[in-house]
Amino acid sequence: MTPSPCVALLMATYGRDDPKHLSEALDHLARQTYPHQRMRLLLAIDGPIPESNRQVIGAFQASSSIRTVATEIPRNGGLARALNAAATKLSGEDEYVLRVDADDLCHPDRVLLQVEQLQADVTVGILGSAIEEFESSGATLGVRTYPRRDQVRDYIVKASPLAHPTVCFRRNAWDALGGYRDVAFNEDLDMWFRALTQGIVIDNLAQPLLRYRISEGFYSRRSWSKAFAEYRCYTIGLYRLFGISWRLAVPAARLAIRLMPRAVARVIYSGRSWRRRMLNV
């Protein structure tokens, strides 16, 4: 019987991660129905972390049959650098690279379903899924879906076509992209633009395979520097993908929304029908 393909789970954690949320994220990895002997967790520890977080990681290593390969980074350098550092531990056997975050909760069948889909459709290079958004209190906010392959190019004009923590890369797509670039606050969006420019097919499963935590900090991420970094990433990406077109006006509209006060941003984000009609942000 042919063994299941090897999967590398790519995660980064840093000093401000809540140990309870980290423990929950790792616990959901331990519940995966995919054969644990065919998975490895490539964990980047991005700078100093509290002892409580180390204890969480140690408990996972001691109890889980998923092997953990940790990469210690002396000073915090950001998500892109941390993920790339973890990815240096990829082996020649790893056929898929699956992103996991340190505070989101994977569906038990996430790895199994994504690998099965990529095995069934060899034309897809990057596969994401819908997400179920929830507050730290546990209250579910709803399900957010993402475009299928034939809608991705149009969708990226308005918003990211993938929920980053849901992504599974086919290994040759990961290698072709060369990992993440150090693009401030937008390493994932930059990668999706580069993938489409290179002709890598992006698709999403309609089933939500991740519970995505919406914390209070989610609404406070709209600083001037982050908003303008997003604007720059979109403008460059759209130009490289489509050239000069009306699409270049969309990032300016997004910028205006990003700079709104936190309370207004919360109302807009919660207003799904309004968001869908306007910019799907």
UniProtKB/TrEMBL annotation:
> Which keywords describe this protein according to UniProt?
Glycosyltransferase, Transferase
User: By its UniProt entry, which Pfam families does this protein fall under?
Assistant: Glycos_transf_2
Query: Domain named Glycosyltransferase 2-like: which ranges?
Result: 10-144
The record's family statement is: Belongs to the glycosyltransferase 2 family.
Q: What name appears for this protein in its UniProt entry?
A: Glycosyltransferase 2-like domain-containing protein
Q: Can you name the source organism?
A: Rubrivivax gelatinosus
